[in-house]
Amino acid sequence: MRDNFVRQLSDLARSDPRVFLMTADLGFRVLDGFAADFPKQYLNVGIAEQNMIGLATGMALDGRVVFTYSIGNFSTLRCLEQIRNDACYHGANVKVVAVGGGFSYGPLGISHHATEDLAIMRALPDMTVVAPGDQWETREATKALVERNGACYLRLDKSSAPATARPGETFSIGKARKVREGADITLAATGGILGAALEAADSLVEQGIACRVLSVHTIKPFDTDAILRACKETGGIVTVEEHTIDGGLGSCVAETCLEAGITPQFFRRIGLRAGFSSKVGGQEYLRREYGMDAASIAKAVAELISARSPKFSLRRAK
Amino acid sequence: MDHSSAAARHQQQKRAVQRTATEELAKRIRRHAVRMTNLGGSSHVGSVLSMADIVAVLYGGIMRIDPTKPNQPNRDRFILSKGHAGAGIYAALAESGFFPIEWLEKHCADGSVLSGHVSHKGVPGVELSTGSLGHGLPVGAGMAYGAKLDDATRRVFVVLSDGECDEGSTWEAIMFSSHHKLDNLVAIVDYNKIQSLAPVAETLALEPFADKWRAFGWSVTEVDGHDHNALYATLSDLPKVTGKPSCILAHTIKGKGVSFMERSVLWHYRTPRGSEYDEALNELISDE
User: The whole model's pTM is what?
Assistant: First the structure.
């Protein structure tokens, strides 16, 4: 995702002099090409994230579209108040980019696990929050964020779902994508873990369970229509996010359903429940350990359906 | 009399008129600040009084701004990083014609746009909303860096408190600005020696303060922050050193202009009410 983001940003910078990329001294070798091609649109500000957001705001208020690049929580939590007061409150075109969503940097430890960013960023007023699920969404989201006014957050993952785009499909911020049709249940996923959701959906076919899969690439503004349709048209909703269950995608779905007075037949949030993800290991390992890999998702769905869905039980009985 | 001495005399006269004007503006800012904090039941009057002369000289004689075109792209930018002294900027903007003076009566009132900490929403002339310390200089540095990239002649003036030099983000911006030779950036520290709870020297000592800025690559000028002649002379001769950002360490007195507020920690938060309010206004009026 990171490389596709940089490629796309290069394409944009070539034709749009407003586009500017700042890094807080991260992106070893990844940003070299951009820096060489666009020396007047690139700056390494040093290891100073608070200053980076301030600088970006100052430049954005005078007409630029500034992408601030760092990894994990450094992009967001380290400079949270600057993002809130400077970028968001002023409606500045600051596009905060975090490379390494969720457990992307799993072996490096909890300082590098971005597992609360979606909840925290989505709480900020006048903020847009996007977590692409595959490479196509990454490129499309990058383009869309340049066009979108105001502060935005782009969460990039190390993992990525296989290509999900249909020929001619268009991407819109705030519009979830139906990447697989099915009537028994909806798996709603955000970020690269969309791949695990799709894999789970594949494996559930063997058990006779047909999953709709939504790529909810935008957490804010949230696509309430897609969620409510999923509630009405499928048996229930399971949300999948490489993120704490507190305040992220699962919370968005729960809030949406309750406020609309529509209760899915069953609902389950798959995400980090353990508090700090203090185990060490790669992204796949940590997903397994914390119950959010494809097998865990499939198991959770199968259990939910057999326990709570009369429809499914009847069909299985036939 | 030869031509050059006539020109010099004309320049001197112009400066005298300007000084009288900025001194008058400073008095008005001080009176507004006392009224506004009284009406709004708000605090930080001491912080406004200490920077009133700096702000008056900037708005009254230094900055290239036009209240009829508050968004003109090449205007000078002003950032009040010590946002708690917002009343002083609202007063300066109203007195400069950015919005009606009557607005000031609504400072901190229900439904007002004039919040205690300076906010840009619905307020012409405010470039940046602040209130949390350590935010102004980074944004100002971004504006200055952008102006350099654009080959624009606009300058950025940031007024900081001494207390907010406790904030690490301020020093991040200080390092950045000298590294990138932002000589279109001017940081003016309202060095009144008192922070929220106690004197600066007792809380987290800044001295040797000028040396710190110099060591970080800035040109530093120390000035009496209540002397309009000195402020005008310093601020009309920028940058001090080509290729370096300018730091003006303005030595000030917190609460300046009201005898019982001067040098007092109490008047960081206290609201002027009752006889204290009357006495404060009397002092500021009889000062004329």
Answer: 0.95
